[in-house]
Each structure stands twice: as C-alpha cells, then as structure tokens.
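The data are set out underneath:

___
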Amino acid sequence: MSRVLVTGSAGRLGRSVVSTLAAAGHEVIGVDRAPGTPPEAAVTLPADLTDTGETFEVLARFRPESVIHLAAIATPFSVPESVIFKVNTQLAYNVCSASVALGVPGVVVASSPTVMGYGVPGGWTPAYLPIDEEHPVRPWNAYNLSKVAAEETMKAYARAGGTKLVAVRPCFVIPPEEWAGAPTQSGHTVRERLDRPELGGVSLFNYIDSRDAAEMIAVLSDALPDLPNGEVFFAGAADALARKPLADLLPQVLPGTEALAAGLTGTTPAFSTAKAARLLGWQPKRSWRTELKEETE
C-alpha cells in the first residue's frame, strides 16, 4: 500500500486516522509536536510545521504518496485570536506549498463546518437547511477565518494543477474515550451536550465519531485520482446529537428558523453528507444512540 503522512497525528481525529490507515495496510508517518500518536504509525516525528523549511524537510525526507493535513489549533478562543489565525494559516500554506513543490500526488486538508459562521454574536440564520457544501461561508472569528483561508489555499494550489487537493469539514469530532465520559473539546461531556440543548445548539447539534471521520478521510484519500481538483466535503453523522427533532430544537437556539428547520424531522441532522455519499460512496456508521448504549436502555 502507500505511504501516508498525517499531520496532527496525536489529535482527537488524528489518532483515529493513523489507526484506520495503518489497519488498511498503509505505511503511516505521524507528525505532531504533542505526544499521543498511536503506535501503529511506522514513524512519529515531532516536527514544527509552522516552519516552512522544516515542512519541506519532512516531506522531502519521507516522500509520501499522500498527505492528510489535520494539524491546527482546533478550539476557537483557546489562545489569542492572532495566534490561532497565524498558526492555522501558516500550517495550511506550508503543507500545501511543500506538497505541490515536491510532487506529492494527493493532499487532504481539514477544514471545519464553523466556516458557515454559526455562533456569531447578535445571531445567525442559515441560508437554507440542511446545510451542504454550496452554502455560503460567513466567518466571524480567527478560527473559522483561518479555516476559510485553509480552504482557499487548497483551492489555489489545486488550480495550479499537478497535485490533487481536497478539503474535508469534519463535524464536532467525538473519539471513543469521549463516549465513555471524557470531556469533549468544548469541555463538556457528550451526555451534557445531549441533556442541555444550548450546548449542542452552538454547533447546530452536529457531530461525527472520530472513526467514521477517519474512514471517510481514508476513502477520500484513495479516491483523489478520480475526483475533480479542489473539492470540499462535509463529514458528519447521519443523525443529530439531540434527543428531539431539530425542527423543534433549532428554533429554540436560533430564533426565527422555524420555517427553515421544518424539514429536519426525526433524527435528520443540520448538515448534509449527500455529496460524500454520491462521489465517494461513504456513509457514516456510528451514532450516539449506539455508542452511548446506556442512554437508550
């Protein structure tokens, strides 16, 4: 199989991506300054990819067939806004530019559903529901602005030709330990997000199991040669992280969305993954209803 370099390999999504790719027979090179990259990685390297020279050095050394770029400051407002924007945009630029310059065949860049702009002070209303990849982006903070910049960087290098580049927007990532009660990236548990709609409502009740996201990224990486360059995909669960239909819940957290949300009946989520199903044949497998078994007993 191929050699795949995964940046952010110790993160909540990166760990699952490393394990999934290794299980499929790929040789995985994990790059992360933090500890925690799974032992399935053939090599783990604590490189600083905000340094352009170091990024080129890593890619020139390992010559991967594909790069999965997940490294980023992943939580909005966790550090000063200027730091988030500088780090995330520099990472995306360095990885894309080095990959193209060194002839890496394929690159997957992690973006975020937050590029839609929900959570903005003063209120936000979607253009339509469910949200798909054609929905306009409306960034309002350094994190989601940095993700828009990462997508545009990817598209710029895609237009240049040669390397195939795509972006994936994983919904709120939940790794296995968080189903067992560990805090999510927001500091709350999954159970708290279910019990308190105002918590899950901040992200429109979106989520995805990290293993499903990893499997989608693996499929996406394999499909790169056959995809148009510069595509963007949502990756989300098939249901909402909510006990009630979003037709009822969304208007509570987003006043004025009653008509837009009316079609989100049953367990229908706010984000559509129809494009990934159509172009990749990918479907999410896991739900909070199966992973939090005690919740349905």
Remarks:
- Residues 60 and 174 are 33 Å apart (CA to CA).
- The longest helix spans residues 81-101.
- The two ends are 42 Å apart (CA to CA).
- The mean pLDDT is 96.
